[in-house]
C-alpha cells in the first residue's frame, strides 16, 4: 500500500486540489469535480490554453511547441486561437529584444575606446534630460 497523496492536479483548472475535489472517475482523468461538469469541448479548450501558456515557462520556443502553436492558431476555439497568438507574439518580442541586445554587445565589442566613450556620453546626456536633477542617482 502506497502512501496516499493528499492532492491532485486538475489539468483543466491547472491547479493542485485536495483529493475530495475529485470523484473516482475524475480522479483517474485528472479532472476535478467542478471541471468535470464542464462540457468536453470546454475542458478541451481549457487544457489547450493551459498548455499554450505553459510554454511561456521556457526561455525558448521549441520546434514542437511552435508547430503546436501554429496548429492552435486554427483551432475551433477562439480562446485557444487567441492564447496561441499572444504566446507566439510574446516569443517573437523576446527574440527581437535578444537580437537587439546581441547587436548592442557586438557594437560595443567592435568600438574603439573613443567611440565607446562617445556612445555612453550620449546615453548619459539623454538620461540627464529624462530624469530630474534632484534624483539621488
Ligand atoms: Zn479543475
How is this structure best summarized?
This protein is mainly α. Helices cover 62% and strands 4% of the residues. It has a two-stranded antiparallel ribbon.
Describe it.
The protein is mainly alpha-helical and 137 residues long. It has 2 domains: 1-38, no CATH class; 39-122. It is built from 6 helices and 2 strands; from the N terminus they run ββαααααα. It has a two-stranded antiparallel sheet with strand order 1-2. Strand 1 and strand 2 (15-17) form a beta hairpin. Helix 3 (40-54) runs parallel beside helix 5 (78-109) and helix 4 crosses helix 5. It is elongated.
Topology:
Elements: E1 8-10, E2 15-17, H1 24-29, H2 33-36, H3 40-54, H4 63-72, H5 78-109, H6 113-130
Antiparallel strand pairs: 1-2
Helix pairs in contact: 3-5, 4-5
Task: Give structural attributes.
137 residues, mainly alpha, two-stranded antiparallel sheet, 6 helices, 2 strands, binds zinc ion
Q: Could you tell me the number of beta strands?
A: 2
Oligomeric status of the shown chains?
single chain
Number of helices: 6
> What class, by secondary structure content?
mainly alpha
Low-confidence stretches: none
How would you write the strand order of the largest sheet?
1-2
Q: Biggest β-sheet, characterized?
A: 2 strands, antiparallel
Radius of gyration, Cα only, in angstroms? 24 Å
Q: Which cofactors or ions or other ligands sit in this model?
A: zinc ion
Q: Write the element-wise H/E pattern from the N-terminal end onward.
A: EEHHHHHH
Overall morphology: elongated
Strand residue percentage: under 5%
Provide mean pLDDT, rounded.
86
Number of domain modules: 2
Question: How far from one another are the termini?
Answer: 63 Å
How much helical structure, as a percent, in the residues? 55-70%
Amino acid at each position: 500500500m502506497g502512501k496516499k497523496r493528499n492532492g491532485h492536479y486538475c489539468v483543466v483548472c491547472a491547479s493542485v486540489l485536495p483529493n475530495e475535489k475529485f470523484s473516482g472517475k475524475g480522479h483517474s482523468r485528472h479532472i476535478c469535480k467542478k471541471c468535470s461538469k464542464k462540457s468536453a469541448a470546454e475542458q478541451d479548450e481549457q487544457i489547450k490554453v493551459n498548455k499554450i501558456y505553459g510554454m511561456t515557462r521556457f526561455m525558448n520556443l521549441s520546434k514542437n511547441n511552435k508547430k503546436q502553436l501554429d496548429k492552435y492558431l486554427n483551432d475551433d476555439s477562439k480562446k485557444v486561437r487567441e492564447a496561441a497568438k499572444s504566446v507566439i507574439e510574446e516569443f517573437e518580442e523576446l527574440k527581437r529584444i535578444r537580437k537587439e541586445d546581441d547587436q548592442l554587445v557586438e557594437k560595443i565589442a567592435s568600438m574603439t575606446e573613443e567611440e565607446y566613450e562617445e556612445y555612453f556620453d550620449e546615453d548619459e546626456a539623454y538620461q540627464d534630460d529624462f530624469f530630474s536633477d534632484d534624483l539621488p542617482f
